Structure formats: C-alpha cells, structure tokens
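Lines hold sequence, tokenised fold; shown next:
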Amino acid sequence: LDYNEDGSRFATAGKDKCIRVYEEATKSVVCKMEGGAGHSQTTPGHSNRVFSLKFVPGDDNMLISGGWDNTVIMWDIRVGHAVRSIYGPHICGDSLDMIGNEILTGSWRPNNQLEVWDYATGEKKSDIQWSGDTPQSVFASAGAPACMLYSAQFSKEGTGKFIAAGGSGNNEAKIFDHHNGDEVIGTVTGLNRGVFAVDFSPDATSTSQMVAIAGGDSAIRIFEIQPV
C-alpha cells in the first residue's frame, strides 16, 4: 500500500495481481488496473503476487509495482493500465522505491540483489555491490550464505542520499551513501533472523538521518546516521 503525496488517494496491490486506487475521503475505488486484453490492446500486467507498490514522486497519475514475477511495472491511472515494464527484479517485500528519475529494487536472490534503474528508459543504471568487490560465489564456496533482500528504501531528505536495505540468508542490513559511489557506511549484522523492513525518518535532512530496521527477531532497531 502507498499514499500519494497529498494523502488524497492510496493504492493497494497483492495476491490477486491487481492495482487498486482509492479515494481517501470515501475509501471508494476509483481505478482498478491489471494486465491483459480489454483496452483495445493487450497490456502488461503481473502474473504473480505483488509485494511492493509506490506512487511516482511528483506524478499522482503514475505508479510502479513489483513482485514474484521478476517484473517492475509502470501504471498510468489516466489510461487505466500499464504502459511500461522492466524485467529482472525479484521483489519479495517492501523493496521497491523511487526518487527523481531513479527506481531502486531489492531482490530476494544471492546475486545482483540491489539495483538502480532509469525510470524514463527502463535501463539499469547500476548494480550496488552488497559485498564490495568480493563476488557472492566466494562466500558460497566458503559455506557462507548470501544476503537475499526483502527490503530496500531511499532516504527521505528529497535527494536519495542514502539507501537502506536488508534481508535473509546472512541476516543483515546495510546503509549505502548513494551520492558517494554507493559506499557502505553502516552494517547491522549478527542477527539470528532475517531483516524484513527498513525505513528512514520522514523529517530527514541532509545532515540528520534516522533509519529503522526490523525483522524476524521481533526487534526494531533505530540508528542515527552521523555526518562525517
């Protein structure tokens, strides 16, 4: 579920693969979107569960969604169906976010978990390396699990300076400085269960950031990102 910027509408998606947009004041459905024939053409749609949904910042008519079918879809409320799609990300939680022209995806898989895409073209802009320059195959050969992501979010100061992400496997979360080559600036590790949710404080500024991390161990951890 996600709200638009002024809170007048919210959208939902889930197991039935449909996108529904509601008026907040009345809780009535104003638009239901799904793929298939019926719009004088065959349009893209999800073929499996949807796990994350976001309004496009600055455009209340557009939404993006992702799920188990390895596809991120862009939906246009004005025409009532999908208009573009990106194939690749395997979304299994709240691991889809957007700021400016960038889409962030976190995938539940051992490689290429954290990716950034160009909203306008659908082209991949970067793979953010979870383990730095060390390939995941090195960890696998040593018997160490990879981190497969359930959650990924941009920070909320308006520029997406930081990225937080976390998952299962080796049960950890990381904070990346997106404006500085996606350098890892913090790691939360040693957890006995996976990380299922990450989020930044809504009143974040360029010099003050709070980030929350929660998961299967029933704990919520809140950290402050200190400027250096």
The two ends are 35 Å apart (CA to CA). The helical segments are 136-141.
